[in-house]
Write a structure and sequence with these properties.
Exostosin GT47 domain-containing protein; five-stranded parallel sheet; 33% helix; 502 residues; 15 helices; 10 strands; transmembrane; Rossmann fold; alpha/beta; 3 domains; binds 2-acetamido-2-deoxy-beta-D-glucopyranose
């Protein structure tokens, strides 16, 4: 690989080298994650080992038996904790990433056929190296406690598909990141499916009270208390090397500790009723879960709303990917650059305040800025994206929308219209290179803004969209640099950012 690719690789490489020399000459070795983002320093806030008494409370919905491990008894897991070895391993990974940044180069792994380069990355060297270190070293332990459908089982298609696909990949026999023993693990995965909980536990929903998050909170709290009582791993880090993945939007409200009020997301009613029947304007009382318990816990979430308790330094923004039944993505109907007659395209219901504004201004009004609440039957959504230069991606009931990923798949430059949304993989990717961000207040100016982008700039953005695509593609089994690797890499970065105290 090295031989054949080095011809093209070298000139670009030297150019990058120069650019990086200029931009990172002030590099401080204590802050390597700064090269990805304005990220926290090496050592995250000291974990506080003063513990409070856990409050386990089970109601009729949860039975203690659901936490009994089925196939694998706790007894088979021997006590041979070796956090020092894990920390040494992580130290080597940190050193390699630092070296890549300082030397403006990386150690090419033989098997890699793809090397990130170019401006879509905040720092391509650092990213390549930390991804390589992850592939080389990372071991994830997926807790085995609990039984489907609430645990070990998530949705594999539709709007929350990424939740189930990720979990399924982690649990798959072929998953190369799978730790054979939890003592090997750098990171611990709690295979809870919030979508599953909402689907199976929150039934029937007849009154607003039925939306109360208590049951979800108790379920997660009980799960954590169970594994924390059984194994040493949770307590030794206070959960800082533990994560869960949820595309369903209930997690934020359930495990926050600084937001006093919580919305009912009407999305939920869609899920539960299969229609757009709305909840209520008044939020039900949310009894907050034990805040200490969730203080360091990594939540990988589609609903990365920073004004709702999403913590960019600890949590991870998960892309929402709509999967048709039995497919890993939409058909590829993207057209070439010169075959995109539509300037901007959107079709979707007026969910949430942003889309209401968008539809109010643009619905069925302009042939270049095509905004529809409903597409005519003979118009194909995916095809329309493939024929448009820009695809509008306004937030709906929650900040994330499957449109960002759909646009990228269709070679259509995403136009992000949102407030307080932390975009996926922004530790690594520079979204402003391949997307346009339009503040909600400038929705009336969309046409002027997009028309004002010169062809040459559009051409570059379009090319970058095509290049960034691989990071949003879903493969089963997962492949290097694809969306599952990107999600894991985001968690890996956070793990690199703190040390277990011995
Ligand atoms: C740890 O928690 C205890 C009790 O909540 C508090 O008094 C103490 O200041 C905390 N220590 C640190 C380092 O945060
Ligand atoms: C960068 O590393 C590669 C091997 O990974 C090596 O072949 C190349 O010479 C290095 N380039 C520089 C400028 O050091
Ligand atoms: C990201 O791209 C923008 C231009 O689109 C540029 O101004 C900015 O410096 C870039 N940020 C990084 C970290 O490379
Ligand atoms: C972890 O801490 C909790 C709360 O203090 C305690 O009940 C549990 O026994 C601890 N787990 C282990 C394995 O010591
Ligand atoms: C759009 O057309 C493609 C290819 O003809 C097809 O596979 C897809 O299902 C269509 N999408 C919709 C939403 O009808
Ligand atoms: C983000 O959270 C804030 C605070 O709860 C809320 O007002 C806003 O509607 C949320 N954004 C979206 C798009 O849901």
């Amino acid at each position: 690989m090295v031989g054949t690719s080095s011809f093209h690789f070298f000139p670009v490489f030297l150019l990058l080298l120069l650019l990086l020399l200029l931009s990172f000459s002030h590099f401080n070795s204590n802050q390597f994650t700064q090269v990805f983002t304005s990220f926290s320093p090496f050592r995250r806030e000291e974990t506080n080992h003063t513990t409070t008494t856990p409050q386990v409370s089970l109601d009729g919905v949860l039975s203690t038996s659901m936490y009994k491990s089925t196939k694998h008894k706790a007894a088979t897991i021997k006590k041979k904790s070796n956090p020092e070895r894990i920390e040494q391993d992580l130290a080597k990974a940190r050193a390699a990433v630092l070296k890549a940044v300082q030397q403006q180069n990386f150690t090419l792994e033989k098997q890699d056929t793809f090397v990130p380069r170019g401006s879509i990355y905040r720092n391509a060297y650092a990213f390549y190296q930390s991804h390589a270190e992850m592939v080389k070293r990372l071991k994830v332990w997926t807790y085995r406690e609990g039984e489907p459908p609430l645990v070990h089982n998530g949705p594999l298609n539709n709007i929350y598909a990424i939740e189930g696909q990720f979990m399924d990949e982690m649990e798959s026999k072929e998953n190369p990141f799978k730790a054979r023993h939890p003592d090997q693990a750098h990171i611990f995965f709690l295979p809870l499916s919030v979508t599953g909980v909402v689907h199976y536990v929150y039934k029937p929903i007849t009154t607003v009270r039925d939306y109360s998050r208590d049951r979800l909170q108790r379920l997660v709290t009980d799960y954590i208390n169970t594994v924390a009582a059984k194994y040493p791993y949770w307590n030794r880090s206070r959960g800082a090397d533990h994560f869960m993945v949820s595309c369903h939007d209930w997690v934020l409200c359930s495990f926050v500790f600084e937001v006093s009020e919580c919305r009912i997301l009407r999305h939920t009613s869609e899920l539960c009723f299969g229609s757009d029947r709305s909840g209520s304007e008044t939020a039900p009382e949310v009894s907050h879960a034990n805040p200490q318990l969730f203080k360091y816990f990594i939540r990988v979430l589609c609903n990365a709303n920073t004004s709702e308790g999403f913590r960019p330094k600890i949590d991870v923004s998960l892309p929402e990917i709509y999967l048709p039944f039995g497919k890993l993505g939409p058909p590829d109907l993207s057209r070439g650059l010169n075959n995109r007659p539509v300037l901007a395209f959107f079709a979707g219901s007026p969910h949430g305040y942003i889309r209401k504004i968008l539809l109010e201004y643009w619905k069925d009004k302009d042939s270049e800025v095509q905004v529809h609440a409903q597409l005519p039957k003979d118009v194909n959504y995916t095809k329309m994206m493939g024929q448009s230069k820009f695809c509008l991606c306004p937030s709906g009931f929650e900040v994330a929308s499957p449109r960002e990923v759909e646009a990228i798949y269709a070679g259509c430059v995403p136009v992000i219209i949102s407030d307080n949304y932390k975009l996926p993989f922004s530790d690594v990717l520079n979204w402003s290179q391949f997307s346009v961000q339009v503040p909600v207040g400038k929705i009336p100016e969309i046409k002027t803004i997009l028309q004002g982008i010169p062809d040459s700039k559009y051409l570059k953005m379009h090319k970058r969209v095509k290049r960034v695509r691989r990071h949003f593609e879903l493969n089963r089994p997962a492949k290097p640099f694809d969306v599952i690797h990107m999600v894991l890499h985001s968690v890996w970065l956070r793990r690199l950012n703190f040390r277990l105290s011995p």
